[in-house]
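RECORD TYPE: protein structure
NAME: Glucose-6-phosphate 1-dehydrogenase
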Amino acid sequence: MALSDFDLVLFGGSGDLSMRKLLPALYNRDHAKGLPETARIICVGRNAWSREEFMEAMEQNARPHIASGNPDPATWERFRGRIQYVSLDAADAATYAALKGALRDGPDDSAIVRVFYLAMPPSLFATICRNLKESGLASATSRVVLEKPLGRDLASAQQINREVGQVFSESQIFRIDHYLGKETVQNLLALRFGNVLFEPLWRREWISDVQITIAEELGVGNRLDYYDTAGALRDMLQNHLLQLLCIVAMEPPVSASPDAVRDEKLKVLRSLKRFTPFTLAQDVVRGQYRSGHVNGVAVPGYRKEPNANPDSRTETFVALKAEIDTWRWAGVPFYLRTGKRMADQLAEIVVRFKKIPASIFARPNTTFQPNSLLIRLQPEEELQLQLMAKTPGDGMRLRPVELELDFKETFKTPRMDAYERLLLDVLRGQLTLFMRSDELEAAWEWVEPILNYWEQEGDEPMPYTAGTWGPAAASALVARDGLQWREESIPE
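PREDICTED:
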């Protein structure tokens, strides 16, 4: 579907997110001839740069993330021509006059989509929105995109929703979670609701457990100031992992309309079993990496990272067991896990089915593995169904085999980056893949008791060696249910 003409304003336009993700995503869409001829991108920052100085910064910081640093020359020049730079202080309404002068208006203004993307700290969301309103820049047809973190607890999330909602209606607010823009997540929706094969099995009678993992080999890098006040629970689990859980567990919506889908996701969040003091102690593991080796390279522990607090209790790893109190999912554990400095860089969902009730095959010749469905989000995007099959040769010996769908091999057309897809949805006004305010608050309501428990107990996070799969307690968490994490259950 063709896009309407637009002015896209990137607050934080000279920042890391804009340079690494947003501007490259917009370039990719321009290269695919998917942007209107007169569409413009206005990058906003505090630096008192000229347009030429900003272009130089874009050459150095955004270009390396485009097509291996070698964009198509004609497209790059066309894309550069769309860019303007405006210097302003986001907290000072008087400086917004420069932005107003850069935006188009006039008799055809209603035909131009105006989007404000706030790639800024959440403490500035309300101030920016208020200043946009006072400057006459926010209208009933404009849109605002809010980057995470969307608060640090329930009260702050409610405050953001309330204050932004005083300027923009709910239908104008796009709370972005880039994991929902990944191709494999889209295909999970297609797999569930575009095929009849899995629906009869997608329930407690046939599914043993669900594992959702987002593991990173990297440490905190240059994000220490932010990360030390956030931690893995706020940074990853409250948003990315819970959103993936909702996609796996939601009931079939009545349609693909935004509110129909988001209504079902909200029901999942409200059906999550609440933690008790006992389950908080038993079913939640937090850890912090110590020095170790990742890919053969020695790396420092979290407390020894540059400028780190040597007594920091910030968690870099969280694993927990969640349960959903519905007829479909009662009794099925959902294990969520995320961490930095892990043994591998991956994001995946594993739906593991129950074991066969009885075997007709001699056990000495067979290593049985339960059937499972692997939805891999990164580093490659793929679907993999694990079955048992006979090995060639004499005798009846079975072993696990995989039926694999590699999106890169199956679909030769170029794939869109998650941010590219989500930016297109913003420009089209399509809200399906964006969180609604009640979703955000329901997620915080479920997570907040964990934060309160850690604060009250004052316990140290469990240490784990960099380059491993986290604290031993994470393995014990699933072992109590007679299960293993996927990488622990793969036969040698």
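COMMENT: Residues 224-249 form the longest helix (26 residues).
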